[in-house]
Write a structure and sequence with these properties.
- Helix 5 (109-121) links the parallel strand 2 and strand 3.
- This protein is an alpha/beta fold.
- Helices cover 39% and strands 13% of the residues.
- The strands form two sheets. Strands 1-7-6-5-4-2-3 form a seven-stranded mixed sheet, with helices on both faces. A five-stranded mixed sheet has the order 8-9-12-11-10.
- The protein is built from 17 helices and twelve strands.
- The longest helix has 20 residues, at 290-309.
- Helix 3 (59-72) packs parallel to helix 12.
Length: 426
């Protein structure tokens, strides 16, 4: 039977047999023993399922990846050592030097730099467009060598809401997959695959872990993109891989398994961005309460956003749950039960007022982190986005006065009192 999201958070990915551990076990081992070379050889040929070295795969990691894939409604999943690694793998798995990608400009600053600087050095070019781009504008950004379209469901920290259906339609008309970073809403609030996304990524460091214990990332394949229908664009999936015994991934593993298997067999093999089994164990503990925590984050954030919206010392508030927000209606379409706990706002007095305000907070802590149980606050232009120029900051929707507040799951009265006290100092 089809299980509800709350049941999947608790039980998906791992089903213990009689007498086996009830909780996902931590398989803290680098290697796995076999009786014969022939048995191990089948693993290296991808002729049999199993484990031989944790740099490629590990049972603990795979159990948790399977849970996240189930939560997103995908066919296969992969855990990585960070969200950055997940986004890099999701693109590099289908791109090579000389290729091109179209991306929303309203994305996490680290991802923007990964695309605009680091991957450009690798010979992969990116064109950045508005997250609110029309179909015509999206199509205009494409080139003959474009291999993917990328966006964030709710951008960090600009909080733009992506029109997933519009982006998916344009991507598919161009014969490329849509990759969506779904970190902020999590599959509890939005499942991009249901709206046409082909690949979904996460920084599991955020709400999925939920307690700021473990850096990690995840990639989920929808299993719906037909690589063979666009074989000329994706030879890495549709032609023999000389580095892995001539395997044709899309042929041997089908649409449901080709993308993730290639990412493991090539990228994880060569880059080694694997999470530790212990971190995956901690991630799973966070996932078990994800469906309980997300509604609290959203209700607290809604109350805070409304309070800030009406405060005379607050110049502006950006939260898609506010009726006058430009993303309100599209957010209701994709995330009817709430988006996330992150708010951005600016104060009368700009940068200096922001610095004074943040110094006087007692509950919300100044931290580069976001989206965990604790309320956290940050001035992105001085932290996560400080590598961007003024023009790039504007393009990413991150003005110099922007404050990012990640509302936690503390008592809402205490959170409001903390904000009130800090605002009274201004």
């Amino acid at each position: 039977m089809d299980k509800k999201i709350a049941t999947l958070c608790v039980q998906a990915g791992y089903t213990p047999k009689n007498g086996e551990p009830r909780q996902i076990p931590i398989i803290q081992s680098t290697t796995f023993k076999y009786d014969t070379s022939e048995e191990m050889g089948k693993l290296f040929d991808l002729e049999a399922a199993g484990y031989f070295y944790t740099r490629l795969q590990n049972p603990t990691n795979d159990f948790v990846a399977a849970k996240i894939a189930a939560l997103e409604g995908g066919t296969a999943g992969l855990l990585t050592s960070s969200g950055q690694a997940a986004n890099f793998f999701s693109v590099f798995n289908i791109c090579s030097a000389g290729d091109h990608v179209v991306s929303s400009s309203a994305i996490y600053g680290g991802t923007f730099n990964l695309f605009a600087v680091t991957m450009k050095r690798m010979g992969i070019d990116f064109t950045f467009i508005s997250s609110s781009a029309s179909e015509e504008e999206i199509h205009a950004a494409f080139r003959p060598n474009t291999k993917a379209l990328f966006g964030e469901t709710v951008a960090n920290p600009a909080l733009d809401v992506l029109d997933i259906e519009r982006f998916a339609k344009a991507a598919h008309e161009q014969g490329v997959p849509l990759i969506v970073d779904n970190t902020f809403p999590t599959p509890v609030n939005c499942r991009p695959i249901e709206w046409g996304a082909d690949i979904v990524t996460h920084s599991t460091t955020k709400y999925m872990d939920g307690h700021a214990t473990s850096v990690g990332g995840a990639i989920v394949d929808s299993g719906k993109f037909d690589w063979f229908a666009h074989a000329d664009k994706y030879p890495g999936l549709t032609t023999p891989d000389a580095s892995y015994h001539g395997i044709v991934y899309a042929e041997k593993f089908g649409l449901g398994g080709a993308f993730i298997t290639k990412a493991v067999a090539q990228l994880m093999r060569d880059f080694g961005a694997i999470p530790s089994p212990h971190n995956s164990f901690l991630l799973n503990l966070g996932l078990e309460s994800l469906h309980v925590r997300m509604p609290r984050h959203c209700s607290n954030a809604q109350t805070v956003a409304e309070y800030l919206h009406d405060h005379p010392k607050v110049a502006w508030v950006n939260y898609c749950g506010l009726p006058d927000n430009k993303y309100y209606h599209i957010a209701k379409k994709y995330m009817p039960n709430g988006s996330c706990g992150v708010i951005s706002f600016g104060l009368v007095g700009g940068r200096k007022a922001a610095e004074l305000f943040m110094k006087n907070l007692k509950i919300a802590s100044i931290a580069t982190h976001v989206a965990d149980a604790h309320s956290c606050i940050l001035h992105p232009a001085n932290a996560t986005h400080r590598q961007l120029s003024d023009e790039e900051l504007i393009a990413a929707g991150v003005g110099a006065d922007l404050i990012r507040l990640s509302v936690g799951i503390e008592d809402i009265e205490d959170i409001l009192a903390d904000l009130k006290n800090a605002l009274n100092v201004l």
